[in-house]
Amino acid sequence: MNNKLFYLFTAVLIAVSAAFWVYMFQEPAEPGTQDVETELYEGDITLTMYHGQGCECCVKWAEYLEDHGVEVESKLVSNPHDVKNENSIPQPLRSCHTGIVDGYVIEGHVHVEDIRRLLAERPDAIGLSARNAAKLTRNGSTRRKRIPNCAVR
Predict the structure, then answer these.
(1) Is residue 59 exposed (0-12), middle (13-18) or buried (19+ Cβ within 10 Å)?
(2) CB 59 within 8 A of CB 109
(3) 113 close to 61: Cβ distance less than 8 angstroms
(4) CA–CA gap between residue 17 and residue 11 (Å, rounded)
(5) Helix (H, G, I), strand (E, B), or coil: what is residue 16?
(6) Which of 30-39, 43-52, 80-89, 142-151 has the highest mean pLDDT?
(7) At what angle do helices 112-121 and 56-67 cross, to 10 degrees?
(8) Residue 101 exposure: Cα atoms within 13 Å on the Cβ side
(9) Residue 53, SS3?
């Protein structure tokens, strides 16, 4: 009888120890990558996009937004940096085009889900930035690789 108790105790100890070490050696989640269920804004969205002459990625991003239910008003400006300066966009977060939606600045190829989340949560921020995202997405916006967005204060 003592041998059975000894083996049962040893088996439980090994199982608990194995579970502990599996837990300890898991890859830590990167900050900001946890899946957080948030409501997305479901209303109509009208975004004004300011861009310079000859930029094809701006047109592709606008088409992407329109395909996802966003009305885009495109405004060609002679100097896009004037819009960025007026909206206090820090230099490291600037992209080739700037969108304005409901008082928020959208800089670069920000995904529509992130814009909808921004409008649902309404944080105390200037907006979102996805600088250089065009280099990471095919045709400016059609590939679904997630690009980290920065809330700009």
Answers:
(1) middle
(2) no
(3) no
(4) 10
(5) helix
(6) 43-52
(7) 60
(8) 29
(9) coil
And the tokens for 128? 């979102």
For residue 139, is pLDDT > 90? no
Q: Are 114 and 149 in contact (CB under 8 A)?
A: yes
- For 100, the token pair is 């304005």
The better pLDDT of the pair 89, 135 is held by 89
Answer whether residue 142 shows pLDDT above 50.
no
* Token representation of residue 35: 């899946």
Domains of the chain: 45-152 (3.40.30.10)
Q: Checking phi first, is residue 112 left (phi over 0); if not, alpha (psi -120 to 50) or beta?
A: alpha
Residue 79 gets which letter from DSSP? -
